[in-house]
Amino acid sequence: MNGRPPAANVLQPERRDIVSALVYLFERVMPDPFVLSIGLTLVVIVLSMLFAPKADIPHILSAWYGGAFGILGFALQMTLILATGYAIADAPVVQRALRALASRVQTPTKAALVVFPIVAVAAWLNWGLGLVVGALLAREIAKRVNVDFAWLVAGSYSAWSICNSGLSSSIALSQASHGNALNLVEKATGQVIPLTQTVFAPFVFVPTIAVVVVMTFIFIKMHPRAAAITPLREESAAPADDPHARSAGDGSLAARLEQSMLGTLLLLAMGIGYLAIQWHQKGFELDINTTILIFLLAGLALQRTPIAYADAIRRAARQTGSMLLQYPMYGGVMGIMSGTGLASVIAKAFVVVSTPATLALWSYLSSLIITLLIPSAGGHWAVQGPFVLPAALSLHAPVARTAMGVAMAENVSNMLQPFWAVPVVAIAGIRIQRVMGYTAVTFVVSLVIYAAALWLIP
């Protein structure tokens, strides 16, 4: 024996050092996101007073009130996207499918090869669905395979990171939705940006696929050696009360109505009928409301009875409380920036340093920092959109590329911002600090991939 510890034990303290630094940064330095939004409001007020042309107290208060309450419709839409996605993942048939997939996994390598594509597809379809599927699939696999649980949860969260490039991207959907409170493009130009120019554009979907493929193989290489594995704790793996177990009812009219599929069938007929008529008359198109409707219908069909779906939404509501507080706060920030003229001042600064070819990249780089302060893409766009969009219009730069630069940076910075990891780790039953050490690697890799795509792909 030469006295040297095994290689896995040499690497473990270094990992702990990284995790400790992230814990200190996010749990000791950064306050609760709601408190952070209050601090950001104060910063914007001070900046407005220093630099904006209309920064007297009546203007600031009026703009804050208008922005805070003008965004409530959008806040509800984003909350429903998470809730309807959760209800789909919560359905018994989906839960059985996840268990069946997990039963086919025997090694950490196969775990990564299963988790990354499945979670990425789910997140691309609906970011709420991706969060829940990732956490539940990680738990099911960890019950059966000798795998490091923190590594597996971090992998599912990394796969989820591409959601802001998908069909439920709040930035892409809001710009595609006529009359939406955050459709800043329509307010400025009278036009909407279809998803073909954002989500389905090559400069978006190519790096999205690249991140999933590259990170899959990087995570395979990052799995700890056998001696350093921390498996799923038995107490966190123990099943809670069956969320789908319901009493048979007492035979009352109320119980029969709750357990009847007639209500579900009625809503399905109405929703499908509406979509069929709209798409026949106007052609196939998606916006925020039709996306929510599709996932509502899918969840109803999978849950089958009205009471089962209502129970699933009640469970989803536990994950949405912080969102309900933050969106009005960021709407107020947007209102102050727009109402006082601060957004125009910042936009002019962007025009000075940017060209039509580089504005999207500058938008991306600045978004990386803003995401750490504003972890919600919708709230983020409410703050950053009012100054990058006028810059794009002034420079005649591609508006869709500039907007998606903000969304793509949101994908990246979420790997260092624990806001969206909170529901994942809560469902998975693991401490967040153990996960963030791995996702820091995803941050670095995806940072390079998305920046290269914005710069090089037409």
From TrEMBL:
Pfam families: SCFA_trans
Gene Ontology cellular component list: plasma membrane
Alphabetically ordered keywords of this record: Membrane, Transmembrane, Transmembrane helix
InterPro entries referenced in this protein's UniProt entry, alphabetically: SCFA_transpt_AtoE (IPR006160)
Residue stretches spanning the membrane: 34-52, 64-89, 111-137, 149-173, 199-220, 262-280, 292-310, 330-351, 357-375, 439-457
Name the record gives this protein: Short-chain fatty acid transporter
Source organism (scientific name): Paraburkholderia humisilvae
Name of the gene encoding the protein in the UniProt record: atoE_2
